[in-house]
Design goal:
The chain has helices at 2-26, 33-56, 62-86, 94-123. The protein is mainly α and 124 residues long. The chain is elongated and about 50 Å long.
């Protein structure tokens, strides 16, 4: 059980740090309306990843747990879209945003794999 707890804690920490690092980069966005719209949507989506993973820890059932992880997965996929758009805002931020994109993609893959495994186990 310790490995499962460690896995959850590491995933939560990664998602939390992703949110923190995104906030830092968004503060560097150019001051124009298009950047504001992208920043707003990106922050809502990316912070939702960690929030839903944390919320899943208090789930009342396995189905509820999977549902919250699915919300986190969807927020991750949405975040990748907004990050891709954000790369076009300022070429000086491109490499930092690319790092966020890679981390988001890794978290999305972990969530997708976890959801798949949980659904497969619940069908047994």
């Amino acid at each position: 059980m310790k490995n499962n707890k460690d896995f959850k804690e590491k995933l939560i920490k990664r998602a939390y740090l992703l949110s923190c690092n995104t906030i830092k980069i968004v503060d560097k966005f150019p001051q124009k309306r298009s950047a504001w719209v992208i920043a707003d949507q990106l922050l809502r989506a990316i912070t939702s990843i960690a929030a839903n993973i944390i919320e899943s820890q208090a789930a009342s059932s396995k189905k509820d747990f999977i549902r919250f992880l699915t919300y986190a997965l969807k927020s991750g996929n949405e975040s990748k879209f907004w990050l891709a758009l954000a790369k076009k805002l300022d070429s000086k931020l491109s490499s930092e945003i690319e790092n966020l994109l890679k981390e988001t993609d890794e978290i999305v893959k972990i969530l997708g794999s976890s959801i798949y495994t949980l659904k497969k186990k619940s069908q047994l």
